[in-house]
Specification:
About 55% of the residues lie in helices and about 0% in strands. It has one helix at about 1-50. The chain is elongated and about 105 Å long. Keywords: Membrane, Transmembrane, Transmembrane helix. Pfam families: DUF4834.
Length: about 80
């Protein structure tokens, strides 16, 4: 008797879980897709509308500094080589 009761409860629970999953999973996936679509649209709009700068203004973000070596270009070591084939 206990085995039949267990089987009946197990089948009822599995059937209920299956029914709930059929009803709730489509709504869950739909909400996830809507959120992803909204994020994609907002990123697309941000890319399409770059900030407008007044005409004639220039902005320099980085100015490279020349590194000067302590050895002048006229001095240095010359290494002769022979090409090996």
């Amino acid at each position: 008797m206990g085995l039949l009761r267990f089987l009946f409860i197990a089948i009822a629970v599995l059937y209920a879980v299956r029914l709930i999953a059929r009803l709730l999973l489509p709504m869950f996936f739909k909400s996830i897709l809507n959120k992803a679509q909204q994020q994609a649209n907002s990123q697309y709009q941000q890319q399409q509308q770059p900030p407008r700068k007044p005409e004639g203004s220039i902005r320099v973000d980085y100015v490279p500094h020349e590194k000067r070596s302590s050895v002048p270009d006229s001095e240095g070591e010359y290494v002769s080589y022979e090409e090996v084939k």
